[in-house]
Structures are given as structure tokens and as C-alpha cells.
Amino acid sequence: MNRLAALLLLALSAGMAWPATPDAGSEPLVNVEIKDGVIHTKAEVVIPASTREVWDVLTDFENLPRYISSVSSSKVLARNGNVLRVAQTGKAGFGPFTFEFKTVRELTLTPFDKFESRFLEGNMKRMDSTTRLESDAGLTRIHYVAEAVPDTALPLGLARSTVESGTREHYKEMTGEVLRRKGIAAAR
Predict the structure, then answer these.
(1) Residue 24 has what pLDDT?
(2) What residue spans define the domains of the chain?
(3) Most C-beta atoms within 10 A of its C-beta, which of 1, 43, 77, 97?
(4) In sequence order, what are the residues at sequence separation of 6 or more whose Cβ sits closer than 8 angstroms to the Cβ of residue 134?
(5) Whose CA is closest to 131, among 28, 58, 69, 52?
(6) Is the pLDDT reported for residue 6 higher than 50?
(7) pTM of the predicted model, to two decimals?
(8) CA 97 to chain centroid
(9) 174, 185, 108, 121 alpha-carbon torsion, rounded to 10°
(10) What per-residue string of b and e applies to 127-153 under the rule 16 or more CB within 10 Å gives b?
């Protein structure tokens, strides 16, 4: 079973509707469902770049604040082979509602295929995610799946819109940075 089919099966089994697969350059697809206090997020975006070009931006943790507007600081605290400990702070919001986040996560990198993130500490109760990259004829498809339990007073009804818009903006900004770097590389 290919990855896309597996993700679709996962989405259907979880009761999450999923629209058609995005094309290169289209808006990131984001689906957020809240069940029993857990926020389930799926996102998919197609970027007209190699997996290496996309990987280099996704894993440039020290420079994330330069191109991801919701991230104020991002620092690699420790590195042991392909396992990193990363601390981040930032602000997320939707309309008049905002909240600051502070996390320390352990990331296990499998270059240029995926990275898994496990929440260690901060102002979430739990957050685990997997980001996978899939190459297809000069395009890279990013599949992102996360489960989070917030530690905030933000009503979960508002959390859905906040997470959807924040995730969509995150991947739009990430795509912009990949294309910016790719343009710089092509100009050389």
C-alpha cells in the first residue's frame, strides 16, 4: 500500500474527510478534527522542488524564525546523530485569540524521508507528529500528521480554526522559503 493510500485510509478510519490531493503550487490542504480533547491535524502540500531542497528548509531549525512568522525562536539544544532536541517559542492565533507556545521536542530525522517529533516539555500537554516527504517527478509532497492536547484556555471549538489557519500559513511560508532558496541556487 503506498503512503498516500495509507494516509487516506487513516483519515477515513478516523472519520476525517479529506479533499483531493493538492497540485504543485496549490494551497496546502489542512484537515483538523477534535475528538475527546485531542486535536488531530493532517496537512499535505506539493512543492516544485527536490526532496533535498525541501528537507534542507524543513530541518533548518535554527533559522525558522526568519521565514515562519509564528516562530519567535528556535534553537537546537542537543544533537546525537539523527536525534535532535529543539526548543521553540512563538505565537499562534486566529482573529483576536492568540496564545504563546513554548516547547522542547525530540526529533528523529530519517533523511530525506521523514522526521518524527515527540513533545518533551512546554505549555502543551502532549504533541506528537510525523512529517514525511515523497518525491514524484521533480516535485516533493509533504505529508504531515499530528496529535496534540493543548494546555490552554482557548476553547477547542476555536482551536480547530486556529490550528487550520496556522498550519496552512506555516506550509505556505515553508513553500515560499524553499522556492526562494531554489531561485537563489538557480541564479548561481
Answers:
(1) 63
(2) 22-187
(3) 43
(4) 3, 4, 51, 140, 141, 143
(5) 58
(6) no
(7) 0.83
(8) 21
(9) -40
(10) bebebbbbeeeebbbbbbbbebebebe
How far apart are the C-alpha atoms of 72 and 125, rounded to whole Å?
Answer: 21
Q: Which helix (H) or strand (E) holds 131?
A: strand 124-136
* Burial of residue 41, with CB atoms counted within 10 A of its CB: 0-12 exposed, 13-18 middle, 19 or more buried: buried
Taking domain 22-187, whether its CATH number is 3.30.530.20 is answered by yes
Interatomic CA distance for residues 85 and 118, integer angstroms: 10
H/E stretch holding 129: strand 124-136
* Tens of pLDDT, residues 50-69: 999 999 999 999 999 999 99
In angstroms, the CA 131 to CA 106 distance is 13
Helix (H) or strand (E) holding 71: strand 71-80
The C-alpha cell 516539555 sits at 121
